[in-house]
């Protein structure tokens, strides 16, 4: 018995020594840059598509129906990308657990970048008839399929690579990249809107989608030099990862926490894409703001959001993931009932402040904490699959249908914002309660094969 106790003590001593060992600074920098530029591409793709859905696509791809129905149809095509994300998550998480995080992050780039470039090449309804919207939906599907493992894979690799005490700060760079992508998308649309309307509707919008190939190539070069996650390399020594069935393992051991991550991200995803996509349409079609006003506001909001993501991620290293998430989601339960009256004033200053707030808190602030919180929740055997499935299935019931459902509620209730605000608040309340049910995960040992437990986080009594 004493021999067994000694063996256990020695194993714990080695694990603690490994956890305390300094991380390779070069690998950390590469992982941070790779995660940042990958999500920059993903959000650039999604933002230019979302903006085009509100401003362009209803006229070019759905011209035979009423303007309101055209907006709903364009947002419906937008939602297809979110329906594809969990399918991509299922597919790529399987291989991410078998062959490593790096392989997936290189592969997903080409699907996202290639699909976005292809959208710029599509014929319109005027030249191809019904084939035009069908091809748009197909490209949107592949765009979402590739994005299904992008943020989760980047967050998992970066969290597993970052040194203790810095996981929140470094992993938040994933969402800093997302904010940069939003900013680039806004800049692209600001430039395109300087064109005469005829040029914008013929080739200007296409040039925006073609431009994604530049970011794709840059991200590919960076990711080729990326080192594999040290946690995955350690897992390979203990488990025959190539012959395991990761989805079966996560279904058996991590199902409860996958469901909690889905609920945690539901309200966050809903509000994020409500601010980023639906409110563009609301401002133009209900409030009556000029279309040229929107992209500069998006740009300012995205720049502010990049700082917010880094700040909240850094604060989570000090105060804990759970506490920071509860504070931010608690605020977002209340604010929808203040946001719409502010938008309806038509005040450019107030509208700008509201959109900036939405981007900073809902779009990037909470997710800046989630980037380290979610990977720390799961055990090492199925972390990639757990994070990916939780985030991407929540994208269906969250951001995927949020613009479509908000537009439908608005049309159904005679442009009343109240049902939309209730919808935003209720989904966020669910996210708040799901977060409350989880333990603190701050700096837990990521080599542990089982999920996070109460009291397990390092210095949880004093810091969380």
Which structural traits does this protein have?
single chain; 464 residues; 22 helices; globular; Growth Hormone, Chain: A; mainly alpha; 80% helix; disordered N terminus
What do these coordinates show?
The protein has 22 helices and no strands. It has 464 residues and is mainly α. The chain has one domain: MFS general substrate transporter like domains (Growth Hormone, Chain: A, Up-down Bundle), CATH 1.20.1250.20. The longest helix is centred in the first third of the chain and has 36 residues, at 25-60. The radius of gyration is 22 Å and the shape is globular.
CATH homology superfamily: MFS general substrate transporter like domains
Work out the number of β strands: 0
Determine the mean pLDDT.
Answer: 81
* Number of discrete helical segments: 22
Distance between the termini: 36 Å
Unreliable residue runs = 1-22, 460-464
Indicate the structural class: mainly alpha
| Portion in strands | under 5%
Largest sheet: none
What would you say the CATH architecture is?
A: Up-down Bundle
Oligomer: single chain
Number of domains as seen in the coordinates: 1
Keywords: Cell membrane, Membrane, Transmembrane, Transmembrane helix, Transport
Protein name: MFS transporter
Subcellular location: Cell membrane
Main location: membrane
């Amino acid at each position: 018995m004493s021999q067994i106790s000694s063996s256990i003590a020695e194993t714990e001593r080695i694990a603690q020594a490994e956890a305390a060992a300094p991380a390779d600074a070069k690998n950390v920098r590469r992982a941070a840059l790779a995660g940042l530029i990958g999500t920059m591409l993903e959000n650039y793709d999604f933002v230019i598509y979302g903006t085009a859905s509100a401003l362009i696509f209803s006229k070019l791809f759905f011209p035979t129906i009423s303007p309101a129905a055209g907006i709903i149809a364009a947002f419906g095509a937008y939602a297809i990308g979110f329906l594809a994300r969990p399918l991509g998550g299922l597919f790529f998480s399987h291989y991410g657990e078998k062959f490593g995080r790096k392989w997936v992050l290189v592969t997903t780039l080409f699907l996202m970048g290639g699909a976005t470039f292809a959208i710029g090449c599509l014929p319109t309804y005027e030249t191809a008839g019904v084939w035009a919207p069908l091809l748009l939906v197909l490209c949107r599907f592949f765009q979402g399929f590739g994005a299904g493992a992008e943020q989760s894979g980047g967050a998992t690799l970066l969290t597993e690579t970052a040194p203790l005490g810095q996981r929140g700060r470094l992993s938040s760079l994933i969402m800093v990249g997302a904010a940069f992508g939003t900013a680039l998308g806004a800049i692209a649309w600001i430039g395109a809107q300087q064109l005469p309307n005829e040029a914008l509707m013929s080739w200007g919008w296409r040039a925006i989608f073609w431009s994604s190939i530049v970011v794709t190539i840059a991200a590919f070069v960076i990711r080729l030099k990326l080192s594999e996650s040290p946690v995955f390399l350690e897992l390979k020594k203990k488990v025959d990862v190539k012959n395991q069935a990761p989805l079966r393992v996560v279904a058996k051991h991590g199902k409860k926490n996958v469901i909690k991550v889905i609920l945690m991200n539901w309200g966050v995803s809903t509000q994020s894409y409500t601010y980023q996509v639906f409110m563009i349409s609301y401002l133009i079609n209900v409030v009556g703001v000029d279309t040229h006003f929107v992209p500069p506001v998006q740009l300012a909001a995205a720049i502010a959001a990049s700082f917010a993501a880094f700040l909240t991620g850094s604060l989570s290293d000090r105060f804990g993931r759970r506490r920071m998430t509860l504070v931010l989601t608690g605020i977002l339960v209340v604010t929808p009932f203040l946001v719409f009256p502010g938008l309806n004033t038509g005040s450019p200053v107030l509208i700008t402040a509201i959109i900036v707030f939405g981007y900073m808190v809902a779009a990037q602030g909470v997710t800046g904490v989630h980037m380290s919180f979610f990977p720390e929740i799961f055990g090492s055997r199925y972390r990639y699959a757990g994070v990916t499935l939780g985030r991407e299935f929540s994208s269906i019931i969250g951001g995927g249908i949020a613009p479509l459902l908000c537009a439908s509620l608005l049309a159904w209730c005679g442009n009343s914002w109240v049902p939309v605000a209730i919808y935003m608040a209720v989904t966020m309340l669910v996210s708040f309660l799901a977060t409350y049910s989880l333990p603190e995960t701050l700096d837990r040992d990521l080599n542990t094969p089982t999920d996070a437990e109460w009291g397990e986080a390092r210095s949880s009594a004093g810091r969380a």
